[in-house]
Amino acid sequence: MQKSPMTAQGLQRLEDELRRLKTEDRPAVIRAIAEARAHGDLSENAEYHAARDRQSFIEGRVLELESLISTAEVIDPSTLSGNRVQFGALIKLVDEETDKESSYQIVGVHEADIKEKRLSISSPLAKALIGKEVGDTVSVPAPGGDRTYEILEVIYR
To answer: What is the pTM of this model?
Structure first.
């Protein structure tokens, strides 16, 4: 089985979601199905069908999370150091065209969240950054044309 790199925080978020699904959402949907069954004719009972659809989603997500957790390879960025970009690094960049600075942490595929500045290891920007050092320039294909960034800082914490 192939291991998936992940930070400890990413693994914790997946475990928390799994725990919530098993202890809160699963029992709630079972109660909703029981209530809908009590209303009688199931063939025309929209509440019953909605609850069954929700149950199906929950069970599928539980299986997916269990698989992700079992294949997670936790990498602690605080044990890494240096100026070279690696998994888990917090990278400060400047867009050479607009001079806009931004920061991203390179994380596993299943913990990425661009709104939280967590960039997937499989994203074009992360792929371009891996192995580069402070001061290096990277070019990344984008819908409006290639974007060029300079690496200002690499932080491991």
So the answer is: 0.81
Which tokens sit at 15? 């475990």
Q: Is 16 helix (H, G, I), strand (E, B) or coil?
A: helix
* Residues 29 and 88 reside in one and the same domain: no
pLDDT digits (tens, 9 = 90+) for 96-128: 999 999 999 999 999 999 999 999 999 999 999
**Residue 31: domain span:** 4-74
* Environment class of 124 (CB within 10 Å of its CB; exposed 0-12, middle 13-18, buried 19+): middle
Same domain, 134 and 96: yes
- 18-61 per-position pLDDT tens digit: 999 999 999 999 999 998 888 777 777 888 889 999 999 999 99
Length reported for the chain: 157
What's the total number of domains in the chain? 2
The letter for the amino acid at 16 is D
Write down the residue that tokens 């150091």 correspond to.
81
Q: What is the DSSP letter of 109?
A: G
Tens digits of residue pLDDT in 56-87: 999 999 999 999 999 999 998 888 888 899 99
Amino acid of residue 50: A
Contact 127, 109 (CB under 8 A): no
